[in-house]
Design brief:
Length: 251
């Protein structure tokens, strides 16, 4: 089975063509421009290196989050367009699961962390059981020190959040905290592709139009709109919330 996989969840952009257990071609870059400036160029380059076309793919895979809202939209829209054009299925893969899968640890708890800005991280915990990656805790957004506060056992940290908050994690966990090498902190599209293979084979796929992102928290734009459209409570609503209505002046 041949899969074109893409990751645009973070500052890096990765594209790969994989076939069963082989990487046919892969390109991972980190540039200052938005991913929309170079994603299609990267896809064209990888397809050329793999000596194939989008029509040769059996399916497409893409990270669906958590991560950069803009980056995720670019990657998912691109893959949706390519998959729709050739009428092939799509698999969405968690960016946190991909990082955990890239971690070589097999005996310790694994904690992928992504920089979520606002001094927070996106994170979850995973563990290998009989060579299968099992998620141990739900993905969430939290302050790094709050997230690791619940970890009481040796744990391997991986991802941009782990690199950014290395010292805070080390201070909180001491010798229970382990970190991967810098090159492992970047999401690789080939990993996205390999994780998708089983889901293709078990028909855990989406039509391109049905693929949805995993944001975890609302974007700044959504929060701004919600704040502007929030309706101030009426006196009767105040009564429901506080148990009394504040008398108007003169009453």
């Amino acid at each position: 089975m041949k899969v074109l996989a893409v990751d645009t969840a973070t500052a890096s952009c990765s594209v790969a063509v994989i076939e069963e257990l082989s990487v046919c071609a892969e390109l991972t870059t980190r540039k200052k421009q938005t991913h929309s400036k170079h994603l299609m160029t990267s896809i064209d380059s990888v397809l050329k290196s793999a000596d194939c076309r989008t029509g040769d793919m059996d399916g497409f895979a893409v990270t669906i989050g958590p991560g950069s809202f803009t980056g995720l939209r670019i990657g998912m829209a691109t893959i949706k367009g390519l998959a729709s054009a050739v009428d092939k299925p799509v698999v969405g893969v968690s960016s946190l699961e991909t990082l955990a899968w890239q971690c070589s640890a097999r005996t310790r708890l694994i904690c992928p962390l992504l920089d979520a800005r606002k001094a927070e991280v996106y994170g979850a915990t995973y563990r290998y059981r009989k060579d299968r990656l099992i998620q141990q805790s739900a993905a969430c957004a939290a302050k790094p020190e709050a997230f690791v506060g619940d970890i009481k056992q040796p744990c391997v940290f991986i991802g941009s959040g782990a690199r950014l908050y290395h010292d805070k994690i080390q201070d909180a966990l001491g010798d229970k905290a382990y970190f991967v090498s810098d090159d492992q902190n970047v999401i690789r599209a080939s990993s996205v592709g390999f994780l998708s293979l089983k889901r293709f084979k078990t028909n855990e796929t989406f039509r391109a139009a049905d693929l949805a992102p995993l944001y975890i928290r609302k974007s700044d734009a959504e929060l701004s709109v919600a704040a502007k459209t929030r309706v101030h409570p009426t006196p009767h609503e105040n009564a429901n919330m506080t148990g009394r209505v504040t008398p108007k002046e003169g009453q």
